[in-house]
Structures are given as C-alpha cells and as structure tokens.
Amino acid sequence: MKTFVTLLALFCAGLLHAQRFRPYLAFGPEISYSSSRVHTENELRDWINRNVGRAYDEPIYTLDVYGRMDYGFHRWFGLNTGLGFICRGGGRGYSNKAVRQHFYLSVPLQLQVKPFRNFWLEGGVEGMALLFHRDVNFNVTHYTLEGEEFTGPYHPRANRAFMLAWRAGFRVNLFRGLSLGANWYSGLTPMAVVEAEQEPGYESRLRNYGLSLGVRYMFGQRRP
Question: Where in the sequence is the domain holding 122, given as residue range(s)?
C-alpha cells in the first residue's frame, strides 16, 4: 500500500510539473552533412537505359541547409517543421565517379518526443519538390527511340517533380538552443521512374536513402 501511495504521489507531482510548462515557438538554422544513395527496385536491361540496371549504391556527400521552426506544445512533446535546400542522389564507380545529384526544396514535419532533458527523439516525413538536377562525370551519350540525345544514367524526364520520405533520428542538446542530431531517411515515393523504351509498361523505380548529421541552433527554445 505504501508503494502504491508513493507511486501515485510521484505521478501527480510529474503532472503538476508538466502543467507549469509554457508552450513556445523557436526558430533557427540547421546545417547537415548528408550521405545519400539510390536503390534501384528492379533492373532495366534495354540498350537505351542500360545504366539503370544497377543501384547507385555508392554514396555522395552533401551539405543541406534548413530554416527550422519548433513548436513545443507539451513538456515532453513538440513539432518541428521548416524549409530547406537539400541535395540527394547517388554515385557509381567508373574511372571517375559518376554522380547524379537532385536538388530539392524541402519541407519536413516531425514529432519530437523528449524523454530526457538533453536527449530528444524525432520522427516524421519530409516533402521534397525538385528544383533541378546535375550530372557529374557521365560521358556516355544515349539516344531515345525518337532520336533525342542526352547524357547521364537515364533521361531526365524520368525524374519525379515531388518526392516524399520518412525520417527518424535523435537530438542531443548541448545547451539552450544548440544541439547535434542524426537522422536516417528513406524514400516513400521514388525520385525517378524509368520506363523501358523497348518494353512498354516495364519500369525501374529509383528510391533514395541515407544518413544525415546536423548542428542546429534554435532561438527561444525551452528544454523539459
């Protein structure tokens, strides 16, 4: 009985402590160092898109920049969103590493769970609108059946204008406002869908995945 009363008292004390929390809005920048790869779900073996038959499983490394906003609506929970300029893609090892880079305007939305004062969990989705792409060290020229010439691993028309990915990770708060974080992300929708020129209806779907490590500083942030 005494144990039950003690646990009940601790629970009530925790609730009272949480009720004293004031919701807040915090804003700030984040810079992330990201490793990005591309997975090919199925192979194309026609001569037009012969480079798509293997995954872009060699990583490329980029810097992503975000403007972040936190809404702390509860002592142990919050929401994070923002706007970012990010790069995704993958590489393949030739004599010079061949890379296709996709540059996106990004809007993340993540739930924050704060089990400890200096350690937070984050998870959610990230919507990405394609701005442009760039190919590096692709010196192979391809032709479509219509005679159109292009370089790169596949025709740019296969790029999708919008991509959705899930993100999950954690943050370590060093002191008020400044934190370090790690996130794993993986595409829920493909970044490109390449159709076989010689076999209509057959396609290869390319999905992006990777890891990012970032530093963030939030003005106006409160910790539990």
Answer: 24-217
